[in-house]
Amino acid sequence: TSVVSGLLYLCFYYFIVSNLFNRKIAILSTLMLVFSYMQIYYTKNCRMYSLLQLSYAGMVYCFYKIISHWMPETGNLKFRSSNIFSLYDLSLIIIFILAAWISYKLQIISLLFLPSALIFIALVVTENIRKKISTNRSMLIFLTFGLFAVLTVATYLLRGPLSDFYEHYFFVPEWSEDRADNFLFYMGVLKHETLLLWLLIPIGAAIAIYKFGRPAQCIICFLAIPFLILSTLPLKAARYIYHVYPFGLIFISVALVALIEKVSAKINFSRFRKKGVLEGLWLLAITIFIGINISNSYVESKLYLPDRPDWKKVAVLKRDQVNAGAIVVADNPI
Predict the structure, then answer these.
(1) pLDDT reported for residue 57
(2) 176, 235 in Cβ contact below 8 A?
(3) Beta-carbon neighbour count of residue 124 at 10 Å?
(4) Read out DSSP for 51-101?
(5) Which of 51, 229, 232, 294 would bridge 159 by S-S if both were Cys, CB 3.0 to 4.6 A apart?
(6) Lowest mean pLDDT: which of 22-36, 81-95, 219-233, 265-279?
(7) Number of H helices, E strands in the chain
(8) Share of the chain above pLDDT 90, in %
């Protein structure tokens, strides 16, 4: 089931990226995702992570389509019955509710969809207001980055209360103490997964906002908000960002595609373009580059995907406390 969900997600991921951005970005980001150690690691495990990844992506995509239909980029909010209760909208709403229910049942952290969605709606409303004042597309970049700069500072300053709130309602194991105060833990996960390419995410985000506008803002919200909030919580693990990590690969791909187009424009490759040699060379270069880049995550695979330091000791203690005849369900042998 996990492998099937992972394969379906790769297909759906390509569809989402090609639909919201373009085919070049979709091919490159999907290629990086196929080679991703985290993607392979969790897909081969018979657990719920791959299905969560698939259902969460479906939830995000349907939500974006619903918002885009009700609040088009060139118009005002449309709440007429013909728009809300069309067959298309009803289909999106039903799929969205089903995907949201599955995501929530699989992992409560999927509730971070809610603040991500609220921030995205705020950006959409603000952008509609901005268009009436200025048509300068660069303002959209400053608006988005300015908002997330404020949110980053706010979440860092509120990390204490947010951590206390989490510990009050959820169990925090002892093994998480060494990561509890590491606000940059998930940045380390990105570095582990993509070595230096993660540095291209802000560059690619800026380019994507300028070229694509709202789709880029949507992906930024559903990538950055979980990163920021999870960074404040005491319990940190790479698996908690597994379902949103692929969104970051989109912006890496945007930056790389923009670089390729700039280089191609500077150099005359007209004699090779007709034979497809240029595309083949770019694909070979990118494949080699990606392979070298992510090999670091395979060499140091236990850096951010480690076994729990004390799970065997805890398992032994728990086993001694189990009454005879009790039924025990666990994902580790005890």
Answers:
(1) 94
(2) yes
(3) 20
(4) HHHHHHHHHHHHHHHHHHHHS-TTS-----HHHHSSHHHHHHHHHHHHHHH
(5) 232
(6) 265-279
(7) 16, 0
(8) 25
Residue 308 clears pLDDT 90, i.e. is over it: no
Q: Which amino acid does the sequence have at 70?
A: W
Separation of alpha carbons 221 and 113, rounded Å: 9
In DSSP notation, 203-258 reads HHHHHHHHHH-HHHHHHHHHHHHHHHHHHHSS---GGGGTTTHHHHHHHHHHHHHH
- Check residue 334 and give its pLDDT: 45
The token pair at 178 is 């060494």
pLDDT at 79: 46
User: Is 60 exceeded by the pLDDT of residue 309?
Assistant: no
Cβ proximity of 170 and 233 under 8 Å: no
8 Å CB contact between 196 and 296: no
Q: How many CB atoms lie within 10 A of CB 333?
A: 6
Measure the CA–CA gap between 257 and 31, rounded to whole angstroms. 13
Residue 57 tokens read as: 């992506």
Can you read off the two tokens belonging to residue 16?
Answer: 């989402």
Q: What is the pLDDT of residues 174-189, one digit of tens each?
A: 767 677 778 888 888 8
Nearest to 2 by CA among 34, 29, 56, 39: 39
Task: Label residue 11 exposed, middle or buried (CB < 10 Å: 0-12, 13-18, 19+).
Answer: exposed
- The CA-atom distances, in angstroms, between 302 and each of 53, 95, 236 are 22, 37, 15
The residue to which tokens 């001694």 are assigned = 320
pLDDT at 332 over 80: no
Predicted structure pTM score: 0.83
- pLDDT of residue 243 exceeding 70, the answer is yes
Residues 188-212: tens digit of each pLDDT: 888 777 777 888 899 999 999 999 9
What distance lies between CA 53 and its chain's CA centroid?
9
Query: What is the chain's length?
Result: 334
